[in-house]
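Hi R.,

As promised on Friday, here is the backbone we talked about, encoded as structure tokens. Could you run it through your design pipeline when you get a chance and send me back a sequence?
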């Protein structure tokens, strides 16, 4: 092997640059070149292989230009939510000939550019790809694997919901940052004797809200368990009464909903068919105020959790995942995702989109009646407390 490529797709999280740097450093030890693909999968549908920079989509990576990137957050390769297997006409590369476009149409107005991706990888003489992303990004990596291209994946998402792994890069930083922000806002909640609602990431899984609640001794509501709104209101009123500082709060996953309630989705769908959830935090704050008569405020923590540099745990995992990915490439183990399983570093099959998100185990982890994590019976649990991954 002489040349590999690396890309980051989907939302940014702290730790991506640490992965990129570590892959580059280890690859140079193996005698490989590393090509950075900019803007996620879009870089492989739109790049011009005849140009050294691919028309703005490629970046040669070496020890010199990656030396300090792990000291900051985000991704130096930039990212997008491109899905090459189902691109709309407006998203197609302008340079693509009309006859080729027609041949790639798989449904009305939808085009599968996988042949273009494979052509570009061949023209770039890339022999293997490291794809870093969440379930959407990695589901397309699985597609490339089925096409026979050598792929190794690294999971990242603040939601920690990628199937097949107990940990994804970005998760620890998100929880750490949520803890800091929530504890900081306790002072203003107490000063005004309010009820607070903190909205946090978690469209389909409640891990981020659950762990944030665990470390702040808070109530939380999660997508896996519709909740009794009146019961929650009563408990928060009681929390406020018993609190010497006169406040209470609840952490709400963006996908949480009360029994019988419904919030629509807003905005245009992305390349993978996702639209933004309407703001559960704002809706819940309004309902709690109406039911309790107590001034209730809503704080959206979401994007603060994905900004800035990674905490120590995310940095450690990012570096380790990167080195394992290079080990897998060197050993010829393709079509695999680096993972944590049973608390240990392992590798797993690339996750197919049909698997859906990994979800929190409500009976063992969540006290439905009290809207909080279970703290009992943790002896023998792994460091991150959740149950092991079961395929």
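Update: got your reply. Pasting your designed sequence below so it's all in one thread:
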């Amino acid at each position: 092997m002489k040349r590999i490529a690396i890309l980051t797709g989907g939302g940014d999280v702290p730790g991506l640059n640490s992965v990129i740097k570590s892959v580059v450093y280890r690859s140079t030890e193996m005698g490989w070149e590393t090509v950075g693909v900019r803007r996620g999968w879009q870089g492989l549908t739109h790049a011009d292989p005849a140009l050294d920079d691919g028309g703005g989509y490629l970046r040669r990576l070496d020890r010199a230009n990656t030396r300090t990137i792990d000291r900051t957050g985000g991704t130096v390769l930039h990212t997008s939510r491109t899905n090459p297997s189902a691109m709309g006409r407006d998203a197609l590369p302008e340079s693509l000939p009309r006859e080729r476009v027609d041949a790639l149409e798989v449904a009305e107005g939808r085009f599968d550019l996988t042949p273009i991706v494979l052509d570009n990888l061949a023209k770039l003489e890339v022999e293997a790809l490291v794809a870093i992303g969440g379930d959407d990004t990695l589901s397309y990596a699985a597609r490339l694997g089925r096409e026979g291209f050598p792929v190794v994946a690294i999971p990242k998402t603040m939601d920690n919901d990628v199937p097949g792994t107990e940990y994804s890069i970005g998760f620890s930083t998100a929880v750490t940052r949520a803890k800091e922000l929530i504890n900081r806002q306790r002072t203003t909640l107490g000063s005004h004797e309010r009820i607070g609602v903190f909205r946090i990431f978690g469209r389909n899984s409640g891990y981020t809200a659950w762990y944030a609640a665990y470390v702040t001794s808070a109530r939380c509501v999660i997508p896996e368990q519709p909740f009794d709104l009146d019961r929650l209101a009563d408990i928060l009123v009681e929390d406020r009464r018993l609190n010497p500082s006169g406040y209470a709060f609840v952490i709400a996953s963006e996908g949480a909903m009360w029994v019988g309630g419904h919030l629509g989705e807003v905005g245009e769908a992305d390349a993978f068919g996702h639209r933004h959830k309407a703001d559960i935090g704002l809706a819940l704050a309004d309902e709690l105020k109406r039911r309790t008569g107590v001034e209730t405020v809503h704080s959206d923590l979401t994007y603060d959790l994905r900004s800035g540099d990674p905490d120590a745990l995310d940095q450690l995992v990012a570096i380790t995942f990167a080195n394992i990915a290079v080990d897998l490439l060197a050993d010829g183990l393709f079509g695999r995702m680096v993972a944590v399983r049973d608390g240990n570093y392992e590798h797993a099959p690339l996750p197919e989109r049909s698997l859906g998100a990994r979800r929190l185990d409500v009976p063992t982890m969540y006290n439905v009646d009290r809207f909080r994590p279970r703290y009992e019976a943790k002896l023998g649990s792994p460091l991150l407390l959740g149950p092991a991954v079961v395929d």
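One thing I noticed while checking it: Residues 16 and 68 are 13 Å apart (CA to CA).

Thanks again,
M.
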